[in-house]
């Protein structure tokens, strides 16, 4: 780089840069009608439960990029599962008031995100940050075309979730015995038994169930985890009826090589259309790992706005990959997400002010200070 | 240097034992990755922290601190450490002590210490101070060139030509930089063809290696791929490097794409030093620690001792009284 220019003020404003470089176009242009959006989602998401998904395309240029993305071997459409309100806030030190959570989720609902994980019906003794699960579930505005899954650790949690109005649930498994024991106080086998009860009940009520596999690329207690173990646990969850399995790099230790090895193994048993990746950015590897997953055919990615959530295993370290930074990359790759980056950044700004912390999103940091 | 084509990464040796508290580093076992295809077996890291990093920090670092940083980086196993910049202190006060720094550092055998030179005058001062390798700074954007060094791209080539001729006579290697390779803060999009044109010119003038810089970090992997595809039609991959800024968090993903395309030289900055003058508050360079973490996880040889690198990063952050920009450092140092 040369000397610091005195003409910084003559630089393109960040909005202009984003428009050019992110191919965002005009945020008010190009909203699809629900039928078109639904076709789009069904074509690329393999989602049995999506209906009337409303996608606001952030510019006509997204269409132009489909051909590029197809020829590059990357999926044309990527579904983002926003886990900020749950995985993010669950790992924040500050307990966020219920009304702030509700406002936060309502704002996220207006960004084009089609899946927002709202809360967790676990005992408040274990996760005090999620103690207000019922109030949050009942308090949010459920926008048409947006899904609001909640975590349910067991049948009791599931029943409470349904009573509170949940129409989609998730169960949380792990590929590590030690992690399972320390996290939910039972072995993997015992946890599968509990989840089977939940998923069976859910299916009986036509409620979709998503499965998570933690420690997919490494465990804070056991160290490395074999891809075969991840495959075994994923297969169990898929076999019992989970429509999608999110493979989580819980402590962010994975790198593109370990991501690739793990996915190669899992994809022998489960179709890519039923898989998602959930990368933590503790060691700065998340986007590189996600790129690898996309190159392998995965088209569902979990992330948290502002990179909310630290890492309970590495004090002071960062946690989830930031939704803003993920969208920036996907937009740049010409992959359609249906999500408006500006609105996500605004929601991120809102929650960061509410929890009094600086954003972990580099895009937000570069844009709001410009 | 790395080799392209069908060379499979072998299982590397287990990492040295690390203190238990360094949780994440346990995972840096080399992974056998035959199916990753064209990834290089070795990557040369060009450490630009002492120059690109410190040049863009608000505080001016005292000379002894700079010297100690460079010495610590030398001990960390890096093979190229960009030491300073022989530009006028009027423009870059952070580099005013260029002569003292270059004379003061320990020059370890096997390690190169290139310095930036903007013109013949700077080159002569650098040589007088003991420089054995220099770098010249071009750009793929006319406007950036004008605002940065107050001349056109063509005029800059004339200046560099004088430097390259003198360097050739003195048997001094010259590295070329191309700024704004993935986008310009003034012009916006930059065509891959323009980057290829400027790169080709620098290479034909005698630069042994051209570092392609995403100066404002706006690039994403697809753009990196398009740019490299164009450039590689004119310049062999072995003569190319990438210099990614992490302003929008894209640096490591962009770097991974470059590796997949056959590039095996990567610039980075310890602790992710250096902000971005174009986006106040934003981050700058890719952190060397985070890069090394990824490369080691991929089984790619770097020669760098991550533990010692973390110590160097910790040292300079304390001296600058700032938090590290490296996530690996953030995760490992607070346990």
UniProtKB/TrEMBL annotation, chain A:
Keywords: Lyase, Metal-binding. The keyword DNA damage does not apply. One of its GO terms (molecular function) is hydroxymethylglutaryl-CoA lyase activity. It catalyses: (3S)-3-hydroxy-3-methylglutaryl-CoA = acetoacetate + acetyl-CoA. InterPro entries: Aldolase_TIM, HMGL, PYR_CT. Its EC number is 4.1.3.4. Residues 78-345 form the Pyruvate carboxyltransferase domain. GO terms for cellular component: cytosol; endoplasmic reticulum; membrane; perinuclear region of cytoplasm. It is an enzyme of class 4 (lyase). This is hydroxymethylglutaryl-CoA lyase.
From TrEMBL, chain B:
Its EC number is 4.1.3.4. It is found in: Mitochondrion matrix; Peroxisome. SUPFAM superfamilies: Aldolase. Keywords: Acetylation, Disulfide bond, Lipid metabolism, Lyase, Metal-binding, Mitochondrion, Peroxisome. Its main location: mitochondrion. One of its GO terms (biological process) is mitochondrion organization. It comes from the Eukaryota. PROSITE patterns: HMG_COA_LYASE, PYR_CT. Residues 43-310 form the Pyruvate carboxyltransferase domain. Gene3D superfamilies: Aldolase class I (3.20.20.70). Pfam families: HMGL-like (PF00682). GO terms for cellular component: mitochondrial matrix; peroxisome; protein-containing complex. CDD domains: DRE_TIM_HMGL. Homodimer; disulfide-linked. Can also form homotetramers. PANTHER family: HYDROXYMETHYLGLUTARYL-COA LYASE (PTHR42738), HYDROXYMETHYLGLUTARYL-COA LYASE, MITOCHONDRIAL (PTHR42738:SF1). Mitochondrial 3-hydroxy-3-methylglutaryl-CoA lyase that catalyzes a cation-dependent cleavage of (S)-3-hydroxy-3-methylglutaryl-CoA into acetyl-CoA and acetoacetate, a key step in ketogenesis. Terminal step in leucine catabolism. Ketone bodies (beta-hydroxybutyrate, acetoacetate and acetone) are essential as an alternative source of energy to glucose, as lipid precursors and as regulators of metabolism. This is Hydroxymethylglutaryl-CoA lyase, mitochondrial. The lineage of its organism: Eukaryota, Metazoa, Chordata, Craniata, Vertebrata.
């Amino acid at each position: 780089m040369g000397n610091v220019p005195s003409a910084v003020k003559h630089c393109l404003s960040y909005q202009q840069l984003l428009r050019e470089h992110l191919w965002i176009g005009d945020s008010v242009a190009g909203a699809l009608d629900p039928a078109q959006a639904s076709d789009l989602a069904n074509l690329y998401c393999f989602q049995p439960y999506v209906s009337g998904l409303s996608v606001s395309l952030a510019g006509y240029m997204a269409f132009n990029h489909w051909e590029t993305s197809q020829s590059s071997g990357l999926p044309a459409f990527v579904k983002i599962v926003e886990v900020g309100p749950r995985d993010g806030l669950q790992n924040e030190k500050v307990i966020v008031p219920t009304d702030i959570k509700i406002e936060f989720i309502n704002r996220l609902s207006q960004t084009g995100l089609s899946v927002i994980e709202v809360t967790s019906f676990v005992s408040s003794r274990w996760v005090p940050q999620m103690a207000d699960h019922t109030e949050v579930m009942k308090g949010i505005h459920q926008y048409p075309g947006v899904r609001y899954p909640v975590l349910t650790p067991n049948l009791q949690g599931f029943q409470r979730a349904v009573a509170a109005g949940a129409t989609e649930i998730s169960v949380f498994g792990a590929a590590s015995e030690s992690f399972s024991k320390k996290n939910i106080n039972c072995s993997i086998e015992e946890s599968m038994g509990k989840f089977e009860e939940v998923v069976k009940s859910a299916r009986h009520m036509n409620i979709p169930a998503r499965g998570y596999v933690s420690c997919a690329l490494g465990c804070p207690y056991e160290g490395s985890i074999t891809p075969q173990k991840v495959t075994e646990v994923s297969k169990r969850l898929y076999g019992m009826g989970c429509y999608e399995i999110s493979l989580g790099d819980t402590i962010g230790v994975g790198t593109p090589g370990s991501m690739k090895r793990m996915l190669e193994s899992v994809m022998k048993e489960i179709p890519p259309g039923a898989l998602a990746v959930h990368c933590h950015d503790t060691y700065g590897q998340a986007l590189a790992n996600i790129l690898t997953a996309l190159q392998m055919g995965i088209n569902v990615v979990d992330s948290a706005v502002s990179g909310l959530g630290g890492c309970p295993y590495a004090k002071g370290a960062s946690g989830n990959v930031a939704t803003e930074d993920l969208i920036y990359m996907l937009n740049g790759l010409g992959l359609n997400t249906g999500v408006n980056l500006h609105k996500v950044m605004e929601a991120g700004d809102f929650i960061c002010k509410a929890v009094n912390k600086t954003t972990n999103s580099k895009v937000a940091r570069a844009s709001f200070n410009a | 240097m790395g080799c392209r084509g069908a060379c499979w990464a072998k299982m590397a040796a287990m990492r040295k034992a690390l203190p238990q508290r360094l949780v994440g580093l346990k995972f840096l076992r080399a992974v056998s990755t035959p199916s990753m295809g064209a990834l290089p077996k070795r990557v040369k890291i060009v450490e630009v922290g002492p120059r690109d990093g410190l040049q863009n920090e608000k505080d001016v670092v005292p000379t002894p601190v700079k010297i100690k940083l460079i010495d610590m980086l030398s001990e960390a196993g890096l093979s190229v450490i960009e030491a300073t910049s022989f530009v006028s202190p009027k423009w870059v006060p952070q580099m005013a002590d260029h002569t003292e720094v270059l004379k003061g550092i320990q020059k370890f055998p096997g390690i190169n210490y290139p310095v930036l030179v903007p013109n013949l005058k700077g080159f002569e001062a650098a040589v007088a101070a003991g420089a054995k390798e220099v770098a010249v700074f071009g750009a793929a954007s006319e406007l950036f060139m004008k605002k940065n060094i107050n001349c056109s791209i063509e005029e800059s080539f004339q200046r560099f030509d004088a430097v390259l001729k003198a360097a050739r006579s003195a048997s001094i290697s010259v590295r070329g930089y191309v700024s704004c390779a993935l986008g310009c803060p003034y012009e916006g999009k930059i065509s891959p063809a323009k980057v290829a044109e400027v790169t080709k010119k620098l290479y034909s003038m005698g630069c042994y290696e051209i570092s392609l810089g995403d100066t404002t970090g706006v690039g994403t992997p697809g753009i990196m791929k398009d740019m490299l595809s164009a450039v590689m039609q004119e310049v062999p991959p072995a003569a190319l490097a990438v210099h990614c800024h992490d302003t929008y968090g894209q640096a490591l993903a962009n770097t991974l794409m470059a590796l997949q395309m056959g590039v095996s030289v990567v610039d980075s900055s310890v602790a992710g030093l250096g902000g971005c003058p174009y986006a106040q508050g934003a981050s700058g360079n890719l952190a060397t620690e985070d890069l090394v973490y990824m490369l080691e996880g991929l089984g790619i040889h770097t020669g760098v001792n991550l533990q010692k690198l973390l110590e160097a990063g910790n040292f300079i952050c304390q001296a600058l009284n700032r938090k590290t920009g490296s996530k690996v450092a953030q995760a490992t140092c607070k346990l």
